[in-house]
Amino acid sequence: MSAVLAKSKPEREATAQARRGLDGLNLFVANIQTGFGPFIAVYLTTQGWTQTAIGTALSLGTIAAMASQIPAGALVDAIRNKAVVAFFSILAFSASALLLAIRPTPLWVYAAEALHGFSSCTLGPAIAAMSLILVGPAMLGLRLGRNARFASIGNGVGAALMGACGYYVSEQAVFFLTAAVTLPAVVSLLPLARLREPVSAAAASRPGGHPPRAAVSALLTNRTLMIFALCAMLFTLGNSAMLPLAGNTLTKEAGNFASLLIAGCIIVPQLVVAAISPAIGQLAQRRGRRLVLLIGFCTLPVRGLLFATLDNPAALVLIQGLDGIAAACVGILVPLIASDIAGRSGRYNLSLGIIGLAIGVGATISTALAGWAADVFGTPAAYASLALVGLAALLLAAGAMPETRPPSPESEP
Amino acid sequence: MAFSTSFMRASAITSRRALAGTIGALALLLAGVAGFTVRCAAAAIITAQNQPETPAAPAPGATPKEDRPKNGSTMPENVKPLPPGDAVSVLGKKVRGANGEDLGLIVDVLVAPQGQPRAAVIDFGGFLGVGSRKIAIDWKALDFAPLVRAGTVGLGLDRAQIAAAPEYKPGPAGADVVMAPSGPSPPADTHK
After folding, report:
1. Which DSSP state fits B145?
2. Which of helix, strand or coil describes residue B88?
3. How far B13 CA sits from the closest chain A CA (Å)?
4. How far is the CA of A22 from the CAs of A126, A332, A351, B153, in angstroms?
5. Who's near A304: CB < 8 A, 6+ residues apart?
């Protein structure tokens, strides 16, 4: 980018440091998030919690995350220094991990879940916003590809590390480890501390120096944003219950190596994301978002049908590779399409919050739908119904989702 | 039939935890705080009023000397001490196989209407909480001897034998229970 080349040497060095900081931030944040997944249920069980109380705690986390998506997005929009947002979000992660480790009693666990739910909604958008500020809209596809690569390495290493820690040390130790990983995350944030949202010449002359913000109503009536949010919801609805369902099948069918194979089902997609996401980011930049969206979405019905028809344990792990392709495409496109729609309107994070809420709703219904279908009609039917929802997402994307890549000479390197 | 120790059965569908939440988790919040009492093994138990070992209510001010604990505070007459090691909590305890392999955690206890424990529900397998299954194990198949010493419960079965068992579903439909290989079979009828 010419804007970067025109800068002086110390400025270029600062930018390079900021880019490495962003790499590290993606890596460590993904690492932190591993401990907060379904593992919390295992940990609370070891603390003598009843299944009912665990269900309440996890639901509270889900509700907190969904309720805070949109307010958190608006909040991140309102704060110009996104590194400050990221810092406090990571601090909140650290606090909730320590609360879980030290005080596994209801009130504190509920507090930890609510805190984690809210700060997840501020951290994701803050990282996307810092990426946009750092490289600009034209190069965002490449940057998001790199973000996805580091995040998936963090996820994979996190799963292996936390799994080993829970097995060999103790369930409680997982949360101390999680809290410890927030330290390198904060260190990675340091070179990003000076990033500010660029202020246009018109906005600089205004008293507050803030760029004028687009109206919220314009965002809510934006047809493209709503179609994309619906696509993302349907995709997640078909996608998120597939891994737990496959894990359940493995526990039943694979005997002594089941846990290892389930670990494989979690780690294989991360390896695929790490391998392909830079290429996917480049593809989105050169050939457009629609192509990448359709590639990602078409893997879901295929995966569902393969799961429904095959039950060979090794095959299940390999099929999970398709999850990696979808995860790379969707993971890059969510912040990229939101940037196409609302990039520098001052409503970028709010639009990410809207898409995040849609994804949260999809994930919640997915578990319920798959659980019910598996109970009533059997596991293959559950896979098939998830595949059907995935097909609906694909058809909606193919039929209604327009290309959002901005027509810019900069996008062709 | 057996009764689950969880009293709020509606949301005991743990494989669908998220669903339970969307329908009124906030209402459950207070109930959850109040209901979370199962985990501590009480050092003293409250006995029923009509239990034979409870002495008849003495006249006011005439509490027998032997009922008074050493620390000076008076213990209500319907409370008797439970010596350490006489009873321990089982929820959340690890179940270990014959070769010491991890067979899961005890998440629930099914008791007969008369109060005898009939089966333990264990959360078996999985990785980082993904893919685990709930399986009911016959109470008589479990060895509670290591519980006080090591905090674990023994079970003379291997992973493959447990994996093959049908999944336990909470609810009034009853459950299939995994038995010890040579253990005595419990009576099919709960009314012995």
Report:
1. T
2. coil
3. 8
4. 11, 15, 22, 47
5. A238, A242, A383, A384, A386, A387, A388, A390
Per the CB < 8 A criterion, the answer to whether A222 and A374 are in contact is no
Other Cβ atoms closer than 10 A to B157 = 18
> How far does A139 lie from chain B, in Å, by closest CA?
36
What average pLDDT does the segment A356-385 reach? 93
Q: Please list every residue in chain A whose beta carbon sits closer than 8 Å to the beta carbon of residue B124.
A: 251
Which stretches of B78-126 are assigned E, i.e. beta strand? 79-81, 94-96, 102-111, 117-124
**B126 in contact with chain A, both atoms CB, cutoff 8 A:** yes
Q: How far apart are CA A403 and CA A290, in angstroms?
A: 5
Q: CA B64, CA B137: separation in Å to the nearest integer? A: 45
Q: Helix (H, G, I), strand (E, B), or coil: what is residue A321?
A: helix
Q: Verify whether the Cβ–Cβ distance B26 to A63 is below 8 Å.
A: yes
pLDDT of B182 over the 90 cut? no
Note the pLDDT of residue A7.
60
Mean pLDDT, residues A194-199 taken together: 70
Instruction: Name the amino acid, one letter, at B9.
Output: R
Flag if B91 and A256 touch (Cβ within 8 Å): no
Interface confidence, given as ipTM, is 0.79
- Report d(CA A229, CA B114) in Å as an integer: 54
pLDDT in tens, A240-261: 999 999 998 899 888 778 889 9
d(CA A184, CA A63): 29
Residue A344 Cα, gap to closest chain B Cα (Å) = 35
- What is the pTM for the complete model shown? 0.81
The answer to whether A168 contacts chain B (CB < 8 Å) is no
Dist CA B7 CA A51 (whole Å): 11
Contact at CB, A48 and B39, closer than 8 angstroms: yes
Q: Report the pLDDT value the prediction gives residue B165, as an integer from 0 to 100.
A: 86
For residue A413, what are the CA distances in angstroms to A63, A136, A139, A406, A408?
A: 44, 14, 10, 14, 11
Lowest-confidence segment of A43-52, A213-222, B149-158 by average pLDDT: A213-222
* B41 and chain A in contact, CB less than 8 A: no
